[in-house]
Amino acid sequence: MTLTTHVTGGPSLAQERRIVTEIPGPRSRDLMARKQSAVAGAVGTTMPVFGAAAGGGVVVDVDGNSFIDLGSGIAVTGVGNSAPRVVEAVQAQVAQFTHTCFMITPYDSYVEVAEKLNELTPGDHEKRSALFNSGAEAVENAIKVARSYTGKQAVVAFDHAYHGRTNLTMALTAKSMPYKSGFGPFASEIYRAPMSYPFRDGLTGSDAAKQAISMIEKQVGAQHLAAIIIEPIQGEGGFIVPAPGFLPALAEWARANGVVFIADEVQTGFCRTGDLFASEHEGLVPDVVVTAKGIAGGLPLSAITGRAEIMDATHTGGLGGTYGGNPLACVAALAAIETYLADDLASVARSIGETVTSRFAAVQKTDPRIGDIRGRGAMIAVEFVDPETHEPDAALTSTIAKTAAANGVIVLTCGTYGNVIRFLPPLSIPDALLSEGIDVVLSALENA
């Protein structure tokens, strides 16, 4: 079935699932052979095909196969892979200049992005922002700012957390393989607290928070703690949604003890969860918010936005980077943010979430391999388990993802135990294409 693209548009690509060769096709096989001889083996790929075009809700490979995209390049292309506003803005900017380095010769688009983030992130207090390239880079700088402001060193992250692949962010990340294994030693003064994981711990948000705070007080001490950093909904760890009340209790404790509360909204930000930011769901107002991924329609950009007194505590020259806030990425971000707001993509995300959740909930009634369905908006996860023991079933999860890919649907796995499939479709995906993609995944489950 050929469909039109969503309101956010994209190139003139047929919005359809189309398999015209075996997967991978001959051109993709040739390119994979070249990759293996030219690219470091540690750089893996989820899909066995190479992309040639993308837009709306599809990715077309070099052999002409068209895949339904339920991954968005890991939650990056929320507005679509080639949203018209983003394309037009970048084309205009690239004709003007590609780089001056904001720290040398500044430009207005960087300032405009900072103003937008200061306006849109949770809380009406005075804020400042700084721009970088990747989520990990922004997380590192958020920790730098917190340490500079508080004069303290320790940082607490959580079980199942993912914050990046640099040395400091690997220390913050919980999962060893593939993110940390063999890469130590890691940055010091990083501590880990238990996360609220309702499906597995059965605790209320209040009880889970008491457990975490008790550990922090006993093993770290508030007098040594610069920051708590947490994803409002964990990403790579399995789309774990903490029980209601967990996040506000942590934030309240942090405020009372002079600890900077950092919300890592790299994967949850920009309408992904049905709110502009996931923190809004419980009225959470972080001291610092970290953003990236969906911020700029696919161009590399990240940011930290925080209370003015925290952000301004660091000496001049203490934050920056050669490419941070590149002008192409900045104009892309302004266009992407306009698209999120003008096209009300938060409500689109909520609709996507309702569709995915309801489809899997109906199957869960008769299939106990579906242990849990969780998430918010267009950030939904299905956790697969052994029906008798409820132990994680990573093998089943891998089989479903591979079968879906072979049948024209891109899905991503995640989770500390490797037993979660996550649904992160672009918010530009047509409704019928989303439904067809779910059909394929459910068929893969049925036949596994």
TrEMBL record:
Listed EC numbers: 2.6.1.19, 2.6.1.22
Gene Ontology MF terms: (S)-3-amino-2-methylpropionate transaminase activity; 4-aminobutyrate:2-oxoglutarate transaminase activity; identical protein binding; pyridoxal phosphate binding
Keyword rRNA processing part of the UniProt annotation: no
Cited SUPFAM superfamilies: PLP-dependent transferases
Pathway as given in its UniProt record: Amino-acid degradation; 4-aminobutanoate degradation
Reactions listed under catalytic activity: 4-aminobutanoate + 2-oxoglutarate = succinate semialdehyde + L-glutamate; (S)-3-amino-2-methylpropanoate + 2-oxoglutarate = 2-methyl-3-oxopropanoate + L-glutamate
Residue intervals passing through the bilayer: none
Cofactor(s) annotated in UniProt: pyridoxal 5'-phosphate
InterPro entries: 4NH2But_aminotransferase_bac, Aminotrans_3, Aminotrans_3_PPA_site, Class-III_PLP-dep_AT, PyrdxlP-dep_Trfase, PyrdxlP-dep_Trfase_major, PyrdxlP-dep_Trfase_small
Top-tier EC class: transferase
UniProt-listed Gene3D superfamilies: Aspartate Aminotransferase, domain 1, Type I PLP-dependent aspartate aminotransferase-like (Major domain)
Superkingdom assignment: Bacteria
One record GO biological process: gamma-aminobutyric acid metabolic process
Listed PANTHER family: AMINOTRANSFERASE CLASS III
NCBIfam families in the record: GABAtrnsam, PRK06058.1
Family named by the database record: Belongs to the class-III pyridoxal-phosphate-dependent aminotransferase family.
Descriptive protein name: (S)-3-amino-2-methylpropionate transaminase
Source species taxonomy: Bacteria, Bacillati, Actinomycetota, Actinomycetes, Micrococcales
